[in-house]
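Q: My collaborator sent me two sequences in one message, no labels, and asked for predicted structures for both. Can we handle them in order? The first one she listed is below.
A: Yes, handling them in the order given. First sequence, followed by its structure tokens:
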Amino acid sequence: MPKQCFGKSHVPLSPAVRAGDFVYVSGQVPVGGDGLVVKGGIAEQTEQVLQNVKAALALAGCTMDDVVKTTVWLEDARDFGTFNTVYAKHFSKDPPARTTVESRLMIDIKIEVEAVAYRPL
């Protein structure tokens, strides 16, 4: 089965791509509907990023419950506790496997998250 791309971006990537029973969500950043980075700290940025992940999943007919793996990049490891509190609200039951690392990010943001979902066709 060929891959299927969902959504459009102003950069050369697809927000979500289905390959068989898996959906891969590109790294989501804390940008709101106006195209601007949301104001606030790690809590506000984490909330926006996870809303963006949710929206990208929806393009491919998935929900947060379908997520089996996330990868998280934090600009500052000291933000981990606050990030984890917000993240836990979105994955309160059977959370996915996760990798979290501290990394310099491409733009002036505090967090980026990518996800892999499993939803059989």
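Q: And the one she listed second?
A: Here it is, processed independently of the first:
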Amino acid sequence: MSKKIKNEKALLKEALRIVLDDAVRRGVVEFEPTDSHDLKIEYAYRLLVHDGAITPLPNNQISMPNIRHRLAMWVRHKLPPDHELLK
């Protein structure tokens, strides 16, 4: 597993907010109140891979911890340098 990054949980939350808000706005997904957090994380990962925004993990490395880490890394590069989560 990759090295844990500072604020990884908060970065994951921000990544989900950005990706899922965009997906709903684009009309590509509708979530139900019963949909699990992990389902949303996996959906966000697959959408970013589909859009070419991130490189897919190798098949033997696809796991929830690795997907969470990949989303956190992605959003780190999307946020402005002075963003609170990067301090």
